[in-house]
Amino acid sequence: MKALPSFVQSSALLVPPRPRPVGIPQRFLLRDLKEKRKFRLLSRKLLAFITFVVIYLSALLLDRNISGRSVVQATVETGLLMTPLGSSTVVFGSISSTSDFWDWFMNSLLSIVYSGSNGDFGVTDGSDDSISKLRSLEMFSYSTDNDSDISGFQTFFLRSSTAGADELARAELMQQYGWIDRQTKDVAITMALYNPSLRVLSVVYLSIDFNLAGGVSPSSDILVLNLEPYDFNVRKNIARSILEAIFVGHVIYFAILEIWDVCVLSGGNIRVYIARYGLWNNVGDWTNIVVNIAIIIWRYCSQKTSTRKKMLELKSFEEYINPLPLMLWDRILLGLNLVNLLLLTARALKYFQVTKGGRRLMRSVYGAMPEVMSFLPIYFSVIVGYSFAGHMLYGLNFTEWATYPRAVFRVFELNFGLYDPGPIYDQGGIFSAIFIYTGNIVFCILMLNVFMAIVMSTWERLSEQEADRASERDQFSRELGLTDALFLMAMKEDHVDALIDVALQLEGDELISRGRFCKAWDELDDDEVPEWTVSRVLGWYWDRDDLAATASGFSANTQALASFGSAAAVSKAMAKFSSAAANANATT
Fold it and tell me: Which residue windows are transmembrane per the record (predicted)?
């Protein structure tokens, strides 16, 4: 006696089946088939999406090298900005006056950075002759419209073999003859530090702002980048280059796939293309493609810049090369990657719809969107008003309220209880009390509760709709299992579209019977549909509770199969069913 097959054993333990439904409602069948097509599209794209994200993030992390760059940046910050050097006790971050700047500049910075210019510095007494002499020096560039403004000159100190005595003397003359005066707004210092062992370039940009009230604000920006990312003597560069090549291949594949969908599957009709996949889905796909193509082009162009080539060809530090263009290229590339990451995060949300819980959650998000969009203008107007009020009340005494963007962020923090209002409450008196109390009432009580009411009402409404849909699905179809999901993903696009066309063609029928569906399918679809596809699709709806037709398949209706394919295909299918029936009868 042969053992029962596993599917027969599992079926024998089931509750006696319900009778086969006489017909399936046409509206339910059409909606369910469209959901299955969407599930198939998302499932197939999900695999490519996961592969793309893994490769992209791996290449990006190898290129940015956050851990290695952070070590280099921390070393530069500690040695250059946080540690007093030479005879000076002033560090860069503590500069608060012009005298502090000159002390740090001459006694700390010039101890490690020297000038490579051998020409005389030249002095000025404000006359035209002295200004012309300054302008004629190679190490200066004139940058203002006022010819009597000596603060418009900029100087470069270059690292060289000199001991720094001449450079220090020039800096003393700069201080003596008022290189920094009341008209000076900003002093910028740019340095390029190259580490040949790590093969990284550190671009240090220091800025000291002088405001009209006499305040001094130092700021620093340090960029660490790989000057030779395609030096294949380094194994890490080889691995990253391979990942980048696969990344480029993925982007090209996605672009060709979307062009194929527009030109072939949709027949060049944009309306059909939008109706087929959805407007926001198409916008997201094309935006993702455009941003990734921009990253590829910008990455390629950044490796061909003249500044990078000059840096690589540099043999002596006597020549000054401005590294700021490299910083600009890298900042824009970083911005493109940031946009791409945020876009991929938003795109990942739609793939949650392949699960039941994810579909319900995303429906709640989409359902609440109209109410949320009407709520946001009111919320932003209140944010703007309270930000201006906070900026006027506390901008002079608190640095976190000194600018309007900072004030907006403080109000946003106050909205969620992330900002401690104690200091501003003690400082502002009655005005602070009004600002804080009314802000808490408006944000924490009114706005937050209105937003929660919108979300909860939408969730309850969708829960009722989901309960009705679940009851309808339980009555007229069966839940997709793992094998059903894999089968649906493997189905041809034409076969899935044909099923939806059949449901649309039967729009006049309130209930669609099994035979009526099979006849319409055979008349509409010119392709020969395999018998297992027919039995699987019928098993989703009409044969879902028929053990003889779905689990065992012993007494399948020949009329349903006769409408598909040739007589040989029908005979082959019936032979399989007869063999399975004989084996099952032998075991009993």
Answer: 45-62, 242-260, 332-352, 372-394, 430-455
